[in-house]
Write a structure and sequence with these properties.
- The protein has about 210 residues and is α/β, with parallel strands linked by helices.
- It is about 25% helix and about 20% strand.
- The chain has a single domain, classed as Dihydrofolate Reductase, subunit A.
- Strands 1, 2, 3, 4, 5, 6, 7, 8 and 9 form a nine-stranded mixed sheet that branches.
Length: about 210
């Protein structure tokens, strides 16, 4: 790897998910009721201080947010009114990129609308050091398809819901990943998994 490429920024995906892959509305009852989802806020009773510290540590150095429409709207309705804590201060301050093919209203401060193209995503690496994607399932699937991400971090919670929007739903493009750090487990059984893109097409075979 050349020095020039080593200096480029990274696109980091952060996702909270259940054991059956549900990512919908982890943080609040009314966060996202689309589809009649009944379990908004499923993450809250399972959190612990270890995960809280780990999430905050992972946000150190975050200097841009890359968000899909749904997550952007949730964040934009909440965080401008909760700026009196470290996470709120950080998210309100950094540049935000709303991924959309149209011209949506984007009233949260420091927001730029970004076309969902490989070149558009890749160009962010020249402007920022640590670009975080939080939630934004449709956007995550697009990044997987294009291969324009550097790390996928999953916080997997010990609960099964059986309904709701899933991280890797039907239509998710096949892609190989490689584990880049040992999995860790919190006192409440939350497993942290960190992956990076791996080379080659997904293959199948037969057990002998």
């Amino acid at each position: 790897m050349s020095d020039a490429s080593a200096e480029r920024g990274r696109i980091l995906i952060d996702l909270f998910t259940t054991l059956d892959g549900v990512m919908q509305a982890p943080g609040g009852v009314d966060e996202d009721r689309e589809g009649g989802f009944r379990y908004g806020g499923w993450q809250v009773p399972l959190d612990d201080d270890v995960i809280g510290d780990e999430i905050w540590a992972g946000m150190q150095g975050l200097d841009a947010l890359l968000l899909g429409r749904k997550t952007y709207d949730i964040f934009a309705s909440y965080w401008p009114h909760h700026a009196n804590n470290p996470i709120g201060e950080l998210l309100n301050r950094v540049p935000k990129y709303l991924v959309s093919g149209g011209a949506p209203a984007a009233e949260w401060a420091e927001t730029t609308v970004l076309e969902p193209t490989p070149a558009g995503f890749d160009a962010l690496r020249d402007r920022h050091r640590n670009i975080h994607v939080i939630g934004s399932g449709k956007l995550v699937r697009t990044l997987l398809e294009y291969g324009t991400f550097d790390e996928l971090k999953l916080w997997m919670y010990p609960v099964v819901l059986g309904e709701g929007k899933r991280v890797f739903d039907r239509g998710t493009p096949p892609r190989n990943l490689r584990l880049i750090a040992p999995a860790t487990t919190s006192p409440r059984g939350i497993v942290t998994l960190r992956y990076a893109p791996a080379e080659g097409e997904v293959r199948s075979g037969t057990m002998d």
